[in-house]
Design brief:
This is NAD(P)H-dependent FMN reductase. By secondary structure, the chain is of the alpha/beta class. The chain is built from six helices and five strands.
Amino acid sequence: MKIGIVISTTRPSRIGHRVAGWIASQAPEGVTAEVVDLAEVALPFFADSAHPKLGRYTEPATIAWAERVSGYDAMIFTVAEYNGGYPAPLKNAIDAIYPEWNDLPVGVVGYGWGGAGRAVTALRPVLENIKAVRVDGPALTFGTHLTPAGEFLTDARDLAVPALYADLAARVPARV
């Protein structure tokens, strides 16, 4: 099984790479976890002329993104919270393509003050609309699980990351 772990923010001061790496380090045997940095993906905003629902992409970045997402059995979004919502690069990455999300299990791990609870909640209807199979993961809270600089604390060991991987694996559609 191959899982993409998405870093949702592109800010220079971000800690998403630490969160994604920590989640990837807990991948069980038989799972390839690949960190996907949206800063490197560099999708333009609404560059394709056709509606994403049609799946007729013309922009090289969109085509590459669609192929990359299609190559995963599941994904995990590491979600930071910005002003009560999730980061615009994540929204753009979701909105740029459409059929590739259908029936794809997507785990959601929030991090920040309050575990990014408002951002994770705001993501729920978006994932439902694109027909992804949402799987809730742990919420990482500053001061309890990690520092604002991205250093993990002892209490982070108690989080259910292995259970998230198991839940994602159980929801991967059988291949014909």
